[in-house]
Automatic annotation (TrEMBL):
Record family assignment: Belongs to the AB hydrolase superfamily.
Swiss-Prot/TrEMBL keywords: Hydrolase
GO MF terms held by the record: carboxylic ester hydrolase activity
Protein name in UniProt: AB hydrolase-1 domain-containing protein
Highest taxon above the source species: Eukaryota
Hydrolase in keyword set: yes
Amino acid sequence: MYRFQQLWKFSTLQFHKGVSEYQNVSQNVVLRGVTLKGRYNDLPNLLFFPEACDPVENWIPFFSDPNNQILDYRNVHILSPRNFGTSDKHFSFDVEDLANDVVRYMYYNKITMATLAGHGFGAKVALAAGCYHPERTTGVFCIDYSPMDQRYHEAFTEFRGFIKKLSEINTKEMTKSQIESFLKENIECVKWRSIFSDNLVKLPSGQWDWKFALKFLHENVSFNKADSLAFWPVKAGLYTGRAHFAFPEFSRWVHLGTNTLPMLKVCPQVRGFGHDVHSVQGDNNTLNHWIYEFQNQSFVFASRFTKFLSMYDGVHLLLKDRTEVGKEFVPSIIYSKKDPNHVYSDYSPAHYYHNWRFNNVYKNLDVQNK
């Protein structure tokens, strides 16, 4: 499997300090994961959120593979959403709380603006942060996700059934071998079985527990509530910046015929299939959701990712792509005068330094010329 290739042994990899804690106040939730420093100085930042329960370690080879070239354009922060991995836990899965977690992480780590991306539920977190905080978002990249109601999808009902099975046992009264045997007997999908196994953690008491908040997760997926992992609420509004959606051709989460329409509804700047919406050709494999497991498929997704980062992310919406930055001018007022001889002014759209809030790069602009 692709994820086992040891491509990520770089000195630029840093796991975040701290342990997961249960928080009583949503605003106290801290996100954690791993940071991969890009190959050049002063690169913008990419915040990436994996699928529910998926460990951040599974995505390290994807981003650190030199053939994928993603680290040529961004510093990458692979972060577990709340209630997963080493991030803090809180009962709320409200979409606004998920979005605020992201911006809070950016503030604590002195990141002014960032590219937000994710896989599955992680893509929902990224898009939600873009909707609620567009001024902090340069672009959104979603892998195998569509902002819609996926609670009836076969893939989600399967996941819900697995979580119900896990809730029926008390891991603290079992040995690891007993838990592994339970997973083998009750979790039919080999990939989900592997993910749950990777989420086992040994407590200081010697007992075993899950890295994710099983109680909160079980309550969330068991009821058709507005904050369900698989539901996109209307209250999140629109994301008006640049966005890109990519998914496997035979995805179980994004059905090509109909599930691409919500992408255009929530992200009005998306230009449609073949431009900002792409299906990646591949086999009709039930495991194709896990793109990093298949090297050929992974490379295609990485290529789309790299093109988005290099050509579109952070580029003013009035321009076609990065090639027009500083070259193309747009009219300040479009044909508002009846006088045919009126000369219209134009301007070059502004592009800000990616970390202007925590940098003095613009300090001299406030000083009047003497």
